[in-house]
Every structure is written in C-alpha cells, then in structure tokens.
Design brief:
6-stranded mixed beta sheet, globular
C-alpha cells in the first residue's frame, strides 16, 4: 500500500485505500463537473496574511502574527439536499494525491517560514453536476494507514517535510505557528500521538486525532470555508509562558496533559483523548 503513496502513477483500487474515490450514486450516469472548494483563513472577517499583526486574540487579548499555517484535508464530499453524497475525485498533482489534499496558507513573507512563496487555498476535483448541493464534508488529517510513510520518499504532498512530525513518526494534520508578545512561537500542531511500531510491522497510536467537519448552507459555486483563527484561539491564552514542568512548550502539541490542548482540540471537534465532539462554528464556518 505504501508504494501507492510513493508514486502517484501507481494505481490501487479505492477500496484498498479506504479513501473514497467517487460518488455513491449507482443510478444513471450523470455528467461530471469540476468543482473548486475554496478555503479562506481569516481573523474575525479580516484575511489572515503573513506580515500583518492581529490584536485582541484569545483570553489575554494578545497580538499575534502568522509564522506558518498548513493542513491536510481528505475525502472532500458534496452533499445534496436529498442527502445523496458525492465525493470529489481530486485532480492529481503537487498538492493533491488520491483523495488527500494539502492546504498551504503562508507565502514566505514577513515572519512566515516553513515553505516557499507558493500557496494553496483550494481543493479541486470532479463530481456529478447537480445544482442542489447544500452541504460540505471533509476529514481533517492524514488517514492512519499512510500516516507513517517516510516523508523524504513519499509522493507529494506527503513529501512536504515541514508537515512531518519526527517525534511522533507521523504527519502534522494541522500546523499553525504564531508569534505573540510573550512567545516567539506559539504552536498548534494536531496529529496522532502515542505512536509505536515500525514501517515493517505497522504502527499503532493511542490517539489517532481523526475528525470530520460538516458544514451546512454550502454552495460550491459561491461559498468559501472560513478558517477563523480568532475563533480557534478564543478560549486560549496565546501569551501563556510555559513553566517548564507541567507545560513544556507554548501552545499545544496534541498532548492530553498540555493545558492549552483541550480548548484547541474542541474547536476541531475532538476531546484530547481523541473522542469526537460537536464541531463549533467558531473556527470552521461557511461564507
């Protein structure tokens, strides 16, 4: 299975990958159409950009500036008014492989680092052409079965080494790095934790950190998925300085014992033990 992800030219049946490679409509064939699902990082309605400071963030009303922001999404699915689900068949390329896509919101200006000037703010794929899509669903993260590939050998976008989490031998599903007044870098890195094993024998993780985001009132022709960083950090103190004993780093590295993690995990629909919660509309919403 790993060979599929090392070379995008090798094909394996979708059922083996468990990644959803088409719609569920088994009826008469319907013409397909290319859809673009757009993602818009913001701070309370203002575009989140490198080189710009944003005040009044979190419980300490801190000032933040973006350093890096990327995330993996997969199984992007459009849902019709009647409940019929149609998974996008993604265009394959640098940012999209099988049903997985890497979004990249930093452009290497200002404090931003972790990549180059190229950004990627959309997922592009085909689905049956219907005019009654009303909801969007996607999973946040890399599927467990390919989460432990070698980033230096994997095909793009899994070859992006800035998303490789060496100490967890897996990928960061969401990577948000910021600077605040008190912390040179404040982190939110979401990913599977407690992982043990090897490439040969496979891995197991105590917390897979898999979450599904469902958004209503979504029109693929008009809507955007807003990622509101002010909402994500609304219950978090971005100026909290770690004490070096119970808290080792500013922010959250997906540890259940980290005091910043529960509030941040809740914004993506997870408890720190990996169990699902209702996803609030403070971080993810439709515009």
């Amino acid at each position: 299975m790993n060979a599929v992800w090392k070379s995008a030219s090798l094909l394996v049946p979708c059922a083996l990958l468990s990644l959803g490679c088409g719609g569920e409509d088994g009826g008469d064939e319907v013409a397909t159409k290319t859809y673009t699902v757009r993602f818009s990082p913001q701070v309370r309605g203002e575009a989140l950009l490198c080189g710009t400071s944003y005040p009044d963030i979190g419980t300490s009303r801190g000032v933040i500036e973006l350093v890096d922001f990327k995330m993996f999404v997969r199984d992007v699915t459009l849902i019709r008014a009647n409940g019929e689900r149609q998974a996008l068949k993604l265009e394959q390329g640098t940012h999209q492989l099988e049903s997985l896509a890497l979004l990249d919101f930093e452009d290497a200006t200002g404090l931003c680092r972790g990549g180059n000037a190229a950004t990627r703010r959309e997922v592009v794929g085909t689905a049956p052409a219907h005019d009654d899509y009303t909801r969007l669903e996607f999973k946040l993260g890399v599927p467990p079965e390919v989460n432990h590939l070698d980033a230096e050998l994997a095909a793009p976008p899994l070859s992006n080494t800035s998303m490789w989490w060496t100490w967890q031998t897996g990928y960061k599903f969401l990577k948000l790095d910021l600077r605040s007044q008190e912390n040179e870098t404040f982190f939110f890195h979401l990913g599977a934790v407690g992982c043990t094993g090897s490439v040969g024998s496979g891995y197991s993780c105590t917390t897979e950190s898999q979450t599904t985001i469902t958004l209503t009132d979504f029109d693929p022709e008009q809507s955007q998925v807003v990622l509101d960083v002010a909402g994500l950090l609304s219950q978090t103190d971005v100026n909290r300085v770690p004490d070096g004993r119970t808290d080792m780093m500013p922010g959250c590295m997906s540890s259940a014992s980290d005091p910043e993690c529960p509030a941040l995990f809740s914004q993506v629909g997870l408890s720190v033990d990996g169990s699902p919660l209702t996803v609030p509309t403070t971080f993810f919403r439709v515009r």
